Automatic annotation (TrEMBL):
Its EC number is 2.1.1.297. It comes from the Bacteria. Substrate binds at residues 182-185. Residues 103-190 form the Methyltransferase small domain. It comes from Thermodesulfovibrio aggregans. This is Release factor glutamine methyltransferase. One of its GO terms (biological process) is methylation. S-adenosyl-L-methionine binds at residues 139, 182. It catalyses: L-glutaminyl-[peptide chain release factor] + S-adenosyl-L-methionine = N(5)-methyl-L-glutaminyl-[peptide chain release factor] + S-adenosyl-L-homocysteine + H(+). Belongs to the protein N5-glutamine methyltransferase family. PrmC subfamily.
Length: 283
């Protein structure tokens, strides 16, 4: 059977999304999309068996990224699997905003802290594009940090360093010019409403933001002033409808709200804060 014929079979017989069918076939054959259509290679029986196995898993609503063991984020190949959150396209907006602010960040220093780093996708995307900066990624999950470390090697990023820890704890002698974070922000009571791919497979600790979804934002903003230089910036990915409450809390903690950026769906997705006044207790 030819590769393109196999894709048609997966779409017609199993109702697999055409793009996902194409990804499965290309992954198993270890070819790029362009080679699929220019060469249309023959599939061996072993390759077809592997494809069918992947389809069986996908029909059980397992995320395709876990099945393939990888995904792409900001032109980087990111390894993922059970125990680590799958990078989302909307998170690329946060990276975009950091890169746009490169010169502003550099005025206060060249050290960035990425909290709740997970697969390391944010830290690695920033590090790959700003090699002169030093970036630290932190996550409480040892499994996530193992993936992040693999992704660092896979993408040959030299200026990013990953550690296991709870938010700021490992960095008591570090001062940063920028903090980034995509923390858990789903309300506990709404997790059951998520798609099966998310609620049944992705790690609960990477999703659960507490009763109101804001517990980690408060923790981050409560501690950030001790680790962020004056005029340093914070970039937060936020959930739908959370901007007003996070903004109010940030103002209460002494931060200036510089901007709130919307995603392609018009949802306020990334909040940018400025530490316009340094904390007297800053380390």
């Amino acid at each position: 059977m030819k590769a393109l014929e196999k894709i048609k079979q997966l779409v017609g017989k199993f109702s697999i999304d055409p793009k996902e069918a194409q990804q499965i076939v290309c992954h198993v054959l270890k070819i790029e999309k362009v080679q699929l259509y220019t060469r249309n290679p023959e599939i061996t029986s072993d390759e077809e068996q592997t494809m069918n196995f992947f389809v069986e898993r996908r029909l059980k609503r397992e995320p395709l990224q876990y099945i393939l063991g990888e995904c792409f984020f900001y032109n980087l190949k990111i390894k993922v699997g059970p125990g680590v959150l799958i990078p989302r396209q909307e998170t690329e907006i946060l990276v975009d905003e950091v890169l746009k602010s490169k010169n502003l960040i550099a005025h206060t220093g060249q050290r960035i802290l990425d909290l709740c780093t997970g697969s390391g996708c944010i830290a690695l995307a920033i590090g790959k594009n700003i090699p002169e900066f030093q970036i630290f990624g932190i996550d409480i999950s040892e499994k996530a940090i193992k993936y992040a470390a693999e992704n660092k090697v896979l993408n040959n990023v030299k200026n990013v360093f990953f550690l296991v820890g709870d938010l700021f704890n490992p960095f008591k002698e570090k001062i940063f010019s920028c903090i980034t974070a995509n923390p858990p922000y789903v309300k506990t009571g709404q997790i059951h409403e998520l798609q099966p791919e998310i609620k049944n497979y992705e790690p609960l600790e990477a999703l659960n933001g507490g009763i109101d979804g804001l517990i980690f934002y408060r923790k981050i903003l409560d501690g950030a002033k001790k680790y962020l230089l004056k005029n340093g910036l914070i970039f937060l990915e936020i959930g739908a409808g959370q901007a007003d409450e996070i903004c109010a809390y940030a103002l209460m903690r002494g931060f200036e709200v510089s901007n709130v950026v919307k995603d392609l769906a018009g949802i306020q997705r990334v909040m940018i804060l400025k530490n316009s006044k340094a904390d007297e207790t800053q380390i």
